[in-house]
Design a protein that fits this description.
The complex is a heterodimer of chains A (393) and B (227).
Chain A lengths: L2 H14 L1 H35 L2 H4 L1 E5 L15 H5 L4 E8 L7 E4 L11 E9 L3 H4 L3 E5 L4 H6 L3 E5 H7 L9 E4 L2 E10 L10 E4 L1 H4 L9 E6 L4 H12 L8 E3 L4 H41 L1 H9 L4 H38 L7 H28 L2 H4 L2
Parallel strand pairs in A: 4-9, 6-8
Antiparallel strand pairs in A: 1-10, 1-11, 2-4, 2-10, 3-4, 3-7, 5-8, 6-9, 7-8
Chain B lengths: L8 E10 L5 E11 L4 E5 L6 H8 L7 E6 L2 E2 L5 H11 E4 L11 H6 L12 H11 L15 H13 L5 E5 L7 H16 L3 E6 L2 H4 L4 E6 L2 E4 L1
Parallel strand pairs in B: 3-8, 3-9, 6-7, 7-8
Antiparallel strand pairs in B: 1-2, 1-4, 4-5, 9-10
The chains are: A alpha+beta (393), B alpha/beta (227).
Chain lengths: 393, 227
Amino acid sequence: MDIRDLWAEALAGVLARPVRSALTTLGTVLGITTLVITLGVAATAGNQIVGRFDELTATAITVEVPARPGGGPLVGWDSSAEVRRLRGVTSVSALAQTEESSNLRVTANDLVDPTRVTGQTLAVVAGDPELPRAARGRMVEGRFFDAGHVRRGDRVVVLGDQAARMLGVTRLTGAPAVFIEDRAYTVIGVLGGLGREQVLSTAVIVPPTTGAGLGLRNVTRVLVNTSLGAADLIARQAPVALSPNHHDELQVISPPTPKRARDGVQDDVNGLFLILGLVSLVVGAVGIANVTLVTVMERVSEIGLRRSLGAARRHIAAQFLLESTLIGMTGGVIGAGAGLVSVVAVSAAQRWTPVLDARLALAAPVAGALVGLLAGLYPALRAARMEPADALR
Amino acid sequence: MPDVMPDVIVLDAVSRVFPTDPPVRALRDVGLRIRRGDYVAIVGPSGSGKSTLLNTLGLLDRPTSGSYLLNGIETTALGDGARTRLRGREIGFVYQSFHLLPHRTVAENVMLAEVYGGHPRRHRRRRALEALELVGMSHRVDFPPGRLSGGERQRVAIARALMGEPALLLCDEPTGNLDSGNTEAVLDLFDGLHARGLTLLVITHEDEVSARAGRRVRISDGVLTEE
């Protein structure tokens, strides 16, 4: 039997009773629509939440370097250069901050003015010259120290903007100094507008060579900024670049990947509706099976006629299977259409950007066809088993 | 191919017993030979075994014992698939109730005869139109069967049976649902087909129909007798 003939016969069989065929598809339509809406809305909503993750957090990685009692430093001050070489890294900075350096007495001058509080307990942090870029800040006043300051071990500091206000340092004209534990340091700049590491705004920042005298010998934290989308990769590569032999001792704090966020949302929303959709599909399948069985019983004489015209049992089975598959697939197509329209409508009402997975739109008719195929198995078997002599009686 | 064309039907000692309680012997040692171009009527009252004989001849039922050669081929030893193919190729059926598909046009109904059994799709409609012309139904090609009279429907069914040039036209009470005028038209058509060399076997209980056949065989209680 030519496959085109089989197709034509099945199509004619479906179209012979158009109203019944249309009603038969309803169950599949409902099931597929529910599934498409559930998956589509969940994907759209999930994407919406992902959209709230701004570029800032999605590209910021922090590597915490634990102290190693007895051993040498895990990460050297020059190691950040290795991270900078990684593709996708936009800026890196190493900094040091310890328990004892967090509560140092800092004063703006050594005059004791009883009317003013000039002494502050501030955190002193050592950082390399890349720190303003890596912390996404900008110099409010003056300048940051450079490689030259670091090399010479100059006693210069940069104040965080809050720290500068607390110390009463407002202008840099006249090269003001601050005293850390009674030693004087020249203030060369004020750092403000920090995008990350807000703690720096209340800190006193010194070059690493200078910080060594304040107990800030070893790198405790590395700030890494990546280009958008590279965070996952860099989070895996940065520890190895920083400390090839002890990379597993470093702690990487990376932004949650968008995929994970989306999965989390879907898990919450989906469960119930997925079950609802699957139940509708099963009901749809039972409906198709039922109607196809009735159709087979109504078409007994047609089956007998086809057998007398030379149709084998498998031809009869194939025709009824194809008919029920067509009905299921039609339900799938209509359901996919209705579902997608609903997703767009929901998105429009919520002012969301609809996210439509092309695979979903393609899989829905296939799922419908599969439902029809399964539903048609028993009726097709009944039709094929029929004895032609009985069928023609 | 043998030099001499074999007889269309050779039944030898065919019996059919239905395994009920008590067993029903629908056919008893039936022997029948139908030659190419024969026009045979099988007559008998209902319950005489007519339907069983028709089903056996039409390869819709298997005899319990005996031998049935259709066009020189021993059919009792064939498998289900081979019997189906042979049936589709060699036998054209005409039924009392026409068995036309109500939702398809006249032409589509006739073309249905070539859907199974590896007939080419090319010129199928042309062949169907030729068959319809042969039975004088060219003017109703695109009508649904529901808008035809009984006689017209039976002529369409005959056109369908003629598709694929079967060796045998097997007719089961072909005029049972027709009035006398339409019966006459169908019987005239049968005469015409017979004149063209077609082998016809008509099962009927109407004397008017059997009188037109060249040969009458009576069946009674499963036993066949020539008249």
